[in-house]
Write a structure and sequence with these properties.
The complex is a heterotrimer of chains A (about 280), B (about 280) and C (about 350).
Chain A: H1 5-34, H2 55-63, H3 66-97, H4 103-109, H5 112-115, H6 118-132, H7 137-163, H8 166-174, H9 179-208, H10 211-217, H11 224-231, H12 238-265, H13 268-271
Helix pairs in contact in A: 1-12, 3-7, 3-9, 6-10, 7-9, 7-10, 8-9, 9-12, 11-12
Chain B: H1 3-33, H2 48-54, H3 57-87, H4 95-103, H5 110-121, H6 126-133, H7 150-173, H8 177-185, H9 190-218, H10 222-227, H11 235-243, H12 250-284
Chain C: E1 4-13, E2 16-26, E3 31-35, H1 42-50, E4 57-62, E5 65-66, E6 77-80, H2 92-102, H3 107-120, H4 136-148, E7 154-158, H5 166-184, E8 186-191, H6 194-200, E9 203-208, E10 211-216, H7 218-223, H8 228-233, E11 238-245, E12 248-251, E13 254-257, E14 263-270, E15 276-277, E16 283-292, E17 296-303, E18 306-313, E19 323-327, E20 334-335
Helix pairs in contact in C: 2-3, 2-4
The chains are: A mainly alpha (about 280), B mainly alpha (about 280), C alpha+beta (about 350).
């Protein structure tokens, strides 16, 4: 509105190019580094690695705890997601469909895990575990992830429950549907995208979560982020970091894209037929 | 079943769980900072751990550093995100792609972002390779963990930009065209429209964005531990050092942890006041 | 208080011609309406007068001065928006004071205007409220007060009543017309509601497909439509196609009189309420359907497979199935320009 269209397009293309380069170049380098043959190192002045192989990937798989870490991450995430959804649903129902004094405050309080610094939560959660003599790292991190990410599930499901049309519920009852029948006819079609979105978001966040996994889990219990952390920083082992970074980011970006789609289709106008 | 009981049962699994766990965590941090739950000796309610910490230079350095990085990152992020949100209010050729790219860091986990940055600035990173190839230097320069924390702040800004952009874009796009047209019609030029209409109507989003960024950055461990200046500590890295195997001093860690929560709170209050003051001053000017 | 001249204005959005060569004149202090269906270009024209849009071709003149290139903030216009477009963060009082403050009016004068307008429009009790605490009618009045506070020479109305309920609409309509006479400004009013246009305007410009279909006083435009579109869009109309001979057209209902020379093929048009029920009427038909509307009766009368719509006083009691006789005054029948063979 305030700028000349030509200048605007020029500026936009320039910025787009810069952002694209900044994303593409390091990712491309990550891919290359992960494929550098361990026997023939890549160093100045070679523009491209002298030899490429999957050797590094196999080496990482066989000699490091990567496989265990992947197993841990990928079993924690779905369990945390399902648990969070199951626990979040009743509260979301109450937030969406029951009026009670202090509801707004309760909804805000539910968000506290999101604003409390992650490492404070992690350290004093660990302190509580010590006091209670809990030694199951897996169970502890699972509980931690459920608490940390349940606010997302509650929020998404609250929106979903609020979209359930009372008239459709009444119509289902009117036509003789039982409790289960009402759920299937009036609730489930509206809730489904929200449930899927909740699952994906908790899943993704659990895979990426570092603070709690690091504080509670280290040094014996590893997840993908804690392994990546060990290769970064002062002693930067680039080829190893490249492998783990790709393992961490690629599936999550794909899932994020699915999530975006879902959240768009969870639009009230599409689900309830009510604008 | 009475209504209240039903409600309590519905709220218990998620709301109840969050309240119980978060109160336990916060209580634990506060209590340990005052000497309770002492794992290394007897529980004794005292100000000793605070007093000891106040006498420690590293503590004040970490507090100052965290506050500095958080404030700087929040201000820079807003300064970048706000003009972009205003500019991209109306779609034009290429604006969707640019918007999408601005949100991309949201998809990249923090640790991966660190890795990407290291690829660029490490000893054998792109920048050094390019400098050497151009003959500007014959040995790689140390860019990683730079003393001033430029790399750290740049990474924080990059990572926090999507949040600020999303919040501000939402607020800016929520201003109806007729409202801006009405202001124009009544004699308000571009500057007056911004000061008197756009700014007040986006103040809340700016507040929310600045507070969230401040809290996120103030509590940072990962970036500080990987790309931050090696001689500095953030409150989170200091806390983990006290708690971790090196010291095992949970009470000291608690003092740092409570300080971090306090800093977040102070940051929230300060940024709220700052944005409100700015908005009012601009409206009157 | 300027008069407005629109000279050969055209507006193109991409491949779409929103306006094609429109010229019109709004005399100083007049109340004119741009009437038409959605997409006819009326709002585009209003936005061009306000300066929000720059026309692809043509000029806009205020009192003979070319203002086509002038920014909206510098024009002597104020608009009342369909959505009201009140500033949500400002109180009623501050909303009204926005314009005077932008124009750097003296404080005392601003206060005088704001108080005066709130007084006149019954907004004084709501001075400190935010817009979202007001009813639709009150918001509409704030929008009006805000526009009038800059003492504009021209007030532009963009369907300002379309979000009000019917009763309120009648009331605000009268208020707007009163204010216009009292305060004195040139008014350009956009609406798709023909009743509104007829009730308020000195002149109606009927737009269709980006051109002015017909213009004139409300009576003229209602009783003497020149095209099928004008006949159809404004109220109900009865149409007959056929030859004219000896000052009448033969129809299944009987001869319809018309003041026109003989012709092989013409279309006649008359309004339902010009009809006179009389035993000696030259026309007749069978009443197929009666709809009692309170003040009047709608009669649907058939003959030879055609249907006419007649409107008579509600005091009549006519049963369905009856045969009635009626007359149509010659002066009430017009020949359409775009009728058959014309």
């Amino acid at each position: 509105m305030w700028t000349l269209p030509r200048l605007q397009t020029l500026l936009a293309s320039l910025l787009t190019a810069v952002f694209l380069l900044w994303l593409i170049v390091p990712f491309a380098m990550a891919l290359l580094w992960s494929l550098v043959d361990p026997g023939t190192p890549w160093s100045y002045p070679d523009i491209l690695p002298p030899a490429l192989s999957f050797e590094r990937w196999t080496l990482m798989w066989e000699t490091t705890t990567l496989s265990t870490a992947m197993f841990n991450s990928y079993t924690l995430a779905p369990v945390a997601a399902v648990t969070a959804i199951v626990l979040a649903a009743p509260t979301a129902y109450a937030f969406a469909r029951i009026d009670f004094p202090g509801k707004a405050a309760a909804q805000i309080v539910t968000l506290t895990p999101l604003v409390l610094p992650g490492f404070v939560t992690a350290v004093f959660f660990a302190s509580i575990l010590v006091s209670f003599g809990v030694y199951s790292r897996y169970g502890a991190i699972l509980l931690g992830h459920v608490v940390l990410f349940i606010p997302y599930a509650v929020r998404i499901l609250t929106v979903s429950f609020a979209q359930v049309n009372q008239e459709v519920i009444n119509a289902a009852r009117d036509l003789g549907a039982s409790g289960w029948g009402v759920f299937r006819a009036a609730f489930w079609p509206v809730l489904k995208p929200g449930v899927l979105a909740s699952f994906l978001i908790v899943f993704i966040l659990s895979i990426e979560e570092f603070a709690l996994a690091f504080i509670v889990g280290s040094p014996s219990f590893t997840t993908i982020p804690t392994i990546l952390f060990s290769y970064l920083g002062y002693d930067f082992i680039r080829p190893n970091a490249a492998v783990v970074a790709l393992i961490l980011v690629v599936p999550n970006v794909l899932l994020m894209l699915v999530l975006e789609r879902l959240l768009q289709s969870a639009n009230p106008a599409n689900v309830s037929g009510k604008g | 079943m009475p209504k209240a009981v039903k409600l309590a049962l519905l709220l218990a699994p998620a709301f109840g769980l969050v309240v119980v766990m978060m109160s336990l965590v916060i209580w634990r941090a506060v209590a340990q900072s005052f000497g309770l739950y002492n794992f290394n000796g007897e529980d004794l309610l005292s100000l000793r751990h605070w007093a000891e910490m106040f006498a420690t230079r590293r503590y004040w350095n970490a507090l100052e550093w965290s506050a500095y990085v958080a404030t700087t990152s929040a201000l820079i992020t807003l300064a970048i995100a706000y003009p972009l949100a205003l500019w991209l209010r109306k779609p034009f050729a290429g604006s969707y792609l640019l918007s999408a790219l601005l949100k991309a860091p949201y998809f990249v986990p923090g640790l991966v972002a660190v890795f990407l940055l290291l690829n660029v600035i490490a000893f054998h990173g792109i920048v050094n390779q390019a400098l050497m190839w151009l003959g500007l230097t014959d040995r790689p320069i140390r860019l990683q963990n730079d003393r001033n924390g430029y790399g750290l702040i740049a990474l924080q800004v990059w990572k926090q930009l999507p949040l600020a952009f999303l919040l501000l874009q939402g607020a800016v796009q929520a201003i109806p065209d007729p409202v801006l047209n009405a202001a124009r019609d009544l004699g308000a030029g571009p500057v007056a429209r911004f000061r008197k209409v756009v700014l007040p109507l986006t103040a809340r989003a700016m507040q929310a964005a600045s507070i969230l960024i401040f809290i996120n950055v103030a509590g940072d461990f990962t970036f500080q531990a990987t790309v931050g200046p090696t001689r500095e500590n953030s409150l989170a890295t200091l806390m983990v050092q006290y708690q971790g195997t090196n010291y095992g001093d949970w009470n000291a860690a608690a003092v740092v942890g409570v300080t971090l929560m306090g800093l977040s709170l102070v940051g929230a209050v300060v940024f709220t006041a700052l944005v409100q003051g700015l908005t009012r001053a601009m409206e009157r000017a | 208080m300027p008069g407005i001249d629109i000279e050969g204005v055209a507006m193109r959005f991409g491949q779409v011609d929103a306006l094609k060569d429109v010229s019109l004149r709004v005399p100083e202090g007049a109340f004119v309406t741009l009437l038409g269906p959605s997409g006819c270009g009326k709002t585009t024209l209003l936005n061009i007068i306000a300066g929000f849009l720059a026309p692809t071709r043509g000029r806009v003149l205020f009192d003979g001065q070319d203002v086509t290139g002038l920014r909206p903030e510098a024009r002597d216009t104020a608009m009342c928006f369909q959505s009201y477009a009140l500033f949500p963060h400002l109180s009623v009082q501050e909303n009204i004071a926005f314009g005077p403050r932008q124009k750097r009016l003296e404080r005392a004068e601003t206060a005088r205007r704001v108080t005066g307008l709130m007084e006149q429009l019954g907004l004084a009790p709501h001075a400190a409220k935010l817009p979202n605490a007001l009813s639709g009618g009150q918001q509409q009045r704030v929008a009006l007060a805000r526009a009038l506070a800059v003492a504009p020479g021209v007030v532009l109305f963009d369907e300002p009543l379309s979000n009000l309920d019917a009763k309120l609409r009648d009331q605000v309509r009268t208020e707007i017309r009163d204010l216009q006479r009292r305060v004195g400004f040139t008014a350009v009013y956009v609406t798709h509601d023909q009743a509104e246009a007829l009730a308020m305007s000195d002149t109606v410009f009927l737009l269709n497909g980006g051109v002015i279909e017909q213009s004139g006083g409300p009576r003229d435009i209602y009783f003497r439509p020149r095209t099928r579109f004008a006949a159809d869009f404004i109220g109900a109309a009865n149409l007959h196609d056929g030859p004219i001979s000896g000052g009448a057209m033969d129809t299944p209902f009987g001869p319809v009189p018309v003041d026109a020379p003989d012709a092989a093929h013409r279309t006649l048009c008359w309004r339902p309420e010009v009809v006179r029920l009389t035993e000696a009427g030259a026309l007749s038909g069978k009443v197929a359907h009666v709809a009692f509307q309170g003040g009047w009766l709608d009669l649907f009368v058939t003959a030879g497979g055609q249907t006419l719509r007649l409107q008579v006083s509600g005091t009549h009691d006519i049963p369905e199935g009856a045969t009635i006789r009626f007359d149509i005054p010659r002066e009430a029948v017009v020949v359409l320009k775009d009728g058959a063979n014309a």
